[in-house]
Structures are given as C-alpha cells and as structure tokens.
Amino acid sequence: NGNVNVTELAFQDACNGKIHASDEVAFSLCEEGDGVLEVAEKAGLHHFAQAMWKAGIAEVNSQLGVYTLLAPTDGAFQSAIKKLKFSNFSEFLDSPKLGDIMRNHIVTGKKTLGHRDEVCHDLAVPNIPALTDILPMSNSSSCNELAQIGFCANEWVAEGYCRETCGRCSTEGAKLTTLGRELTLSKSKIKAEDQLRVYSHLHENPHNNNVVRMIEESQVLAPDVEACNGFVNIIDSVII
Q: I want to staple 239 with a disulfide (CB 3.0 to 4.6 A). Which of 34, 104, 141, 176 is the partner?
C-alpha cells in the first residue's frame, strides 16, 4: 500500500502461495464486516472467489485496499471454460492465462455501477453551512468542487444535487479501467424494472427510467453489493 516494504528475498514457499517478510504491520480495512472476496463467496460466486485466490492477486486478497469487483457467476465461468477450450475448471485454474483474465475483473477504488437514469442532470447546490465551511470562497458550491473533495460518496449529493457529475446518469461509451485493461460501459436493452431480482441488497427497487449497465458484453445482474472494502458487481460473463 505504499507504506510497507516487502523483502522479496525473505520468503517461504507454502502449498498455496508464498510468505514474504515486511518491515511493518499491515492492517486490514475490514475491522468489521466481510471483504469483497468474502461477499462474493457468500453470494454463491464460488468459481470467482476460488479463481481470485488461485491467481494470487495479493492486493485484493489481503483487504489492504478498496476495490470494485466484477464477479461472474459460476455458470459464466463454465461457459468461458468451453470457449477457451479447457477441459474443466481445474485446468483453467492452472492456466498461465488465469492472472491476466482475473485482473480484467478488478477496479481500484469504490466505483458505483448500479442502475442509472437514462437522462439526468445536476441541480443548483444550495448555500449549506457544512459546505461553505469547506469551500469558503464560494457563495454556493458547484458539483465539480464537491466531487473533487469526495462528496459523491454522500448519497444526498450523488442521488440529489449532483447526479450527472457523480456518475448517476447513463453514459454511452464511458470507460472503466481495471487492473487488466480498459473496458467500455454501455446501456443494456433490459429495463431495470423488468430485471429479475434475486439479491436483496438494494435499498429500493429500480425506477421506470433506470437503465441497466453493460460492461463490454457482460450484463450487470446485481450492482454495487457492498463490502467493507468496496463493491461486488455480479455479471453474467467472464471478461477475457
């Protein structure tokens, strides 16, 4: 994480990885609650969780950072295995392609990919004391200013005054950068209100004017499932 120095030469092989020596104690961000991989496992995404651990992507497995995961269903992995001509899931786990494929499903930071309004815009932000204390030079704060200081993390800003700036509108062709490559976001033809809901994490049902996101060719089935160190987004295909 930038503060811990790992001694590459001081390691011990184990059956499921390596143990490295460091000069600091590394603290997890998850003092309470489940991390992103635990949330994925509990959601029934067993192939995804197993592939992530096998790939040895330490920055996610260690819970020392904040991440947004694009987690395919077990059925999606079975389809990908056939497409890539592996005999079975175990063969896929042993493939040299595993690490590159799994990095396509990891985004650094906490990015919301949930339902978006097909059309939306920012509103004038009122002169609120809590904001003018932070931005004393402004009579009223702009959405760009609020976004720069992290106020998009507040739902009353992101879902209210600054929907467009905080990314709550549908944007065709928007980009999402993973640890593997850049992905393109688009709008699904499925209406959010018509999509079958099997996960109960959403605070409210999607509205009539909401759209469902596509990531490349992958449909977002359940967006923004919260973990103590980020979000898990359940998708219907493996991003290769």
A: 104
> If you write DSSP's letter for every residue of 175-192 in order, what string do you get?
EEE-SS-EEEEEEEEEEG
Helix (H/G/I), strand (E/B), else coil: 182: strand
CB atoms within 10 A of CB 66: 17
d(CA 52, CA 67): 13
Higher pLDDT, 232 or 134: 232
Residue 143 CA to residue 160 CA, distance in Å, equals: 11
Q: Which of 8, 108, 19, 90 is nearest to 54 (CA)?
A: 90
Q: Provide the Cα torsion 214, 220, 223, 228; round to 10°.
A: -100
Q: What are phi and psi of 13, to 5 degrees?
A: -70, 145
Which distant-in-sequence residues (6+ apart) come within 8 Å of 4 by Cβ?
22, 23, 24, 26
Q: How far is 188 from 161, CA to CA, in rounded Å?
A: 26
Q: What pLDDT, on a 0 to 100 scale, did the predictor assign at position 1?
A: 42
The owner of tokens 């809590």 is 130
Contact present, 143 and 162 (Cβ < 8 Å): yes
pTM of the prediction? 0.66
pLDDT at residue 211, rounded to an integer = 58
Burial of 208 (0-12, 13-18, 19+ CB in 10 A): exposed
Query: How sure is the predictor about 99, in pLDDT bands with cuts at 50, 70 and 90?
Result: very high
Residue owning tokens 């490349």: 216
Environment class of residue 34 by beta-carbon count within 10 Å: exposed (0-12), middle (13-18) or buried (19+)? Answer: middle
Angle value at C-alpha 126, between 121 and 132, nearest 5 degrees? 120
